[in-house]
Amino acid sequence: MNIPQPLIKAYGELTPYLQEIEQRLTNSLRPYAQSNLLPLIARIKTIESAAEKIETGRYGSFEELDDLVACTMVIPNLPHEEAALDYCSRVFRIVDVKRRSSTRKSPEVFRFDSTRLYGFINMPEGLDVGDSLSIFDIKFEIQIRTAFEHAWTVSTHPLTYKSDNIDWRRFRLAAQIKSATEQLDLSIVQFEQLAAAISESPWPELKDRQRVVDLIEKLNSDGVIPSEAGPKDMTRFAENLTSMIRASKKKVRLEDALSELDIRLRAFTEESFPRSASLLQVCMGMLCQGGMLTGPLQKYSCHVTEQLVQLFPEVRALTPVFKYDKKN
Q: What is the reported pTM?
């Protein structure tokens, strides 16, 4: 693509500013993205893309180009959008927000419509840059996309808008996939209601995990297990406990193992509950102490630590065990 000389000159002068804005934009958004496990993608528009945008005829000057620097934050689903918008509004000077529902669109049309924010880097109080161009004068864009929207965009954009093949059928298919994306996002928003309407099929493994969850929640509510000792992920804990019990050399019914745990755990109070081992380790020690968990376990490595051995010496007999030192 031939780039006009005035654009090459202007873009060359702007590039250092754009790079600094991209860096500041990323540094400001990264803490929020990392703490919420959100993908974050930043980019500076290439000179070729800038030339193409100018040639749309929709812009009268460089100042009107609002996405020379752009950043995309990918949120899990729509309910997370307001928190992301609020954070951006607190760390930047946001001057315009185009929400996904604000663009006029026929109900039969399915196209890109993620929420976009436009703003500037905040100028430090007392700083005076005069009339010269600064990073505080260049507008940037932040796109807030759901995970499904992001997947649709990165999957179809190169096949349609970045393709040499102009084909009605390709655009039609991209729109159909977008409609499916909107349906998926709606399904997540209405997840609980939709799940309640599904006819349930029997699946014993899930029933067993629910028994574990019911027991732990009851012990929590009764003040037996302190809140800080509870599992981070109750679903994962239930899966791990049932797997451990099934792996025992001595086969026991899950109901009997849970009854044993209920009795033994209730011997503790919230104050006396062990803090030096995880809840699963405590359950392991109790079942081993009661003779309901014996080794060698099948396809299960026990997490045995010195702290657990001090609480339940019987766990020394369990094998195999997780090894911290690869030499042993």
A: 0.75
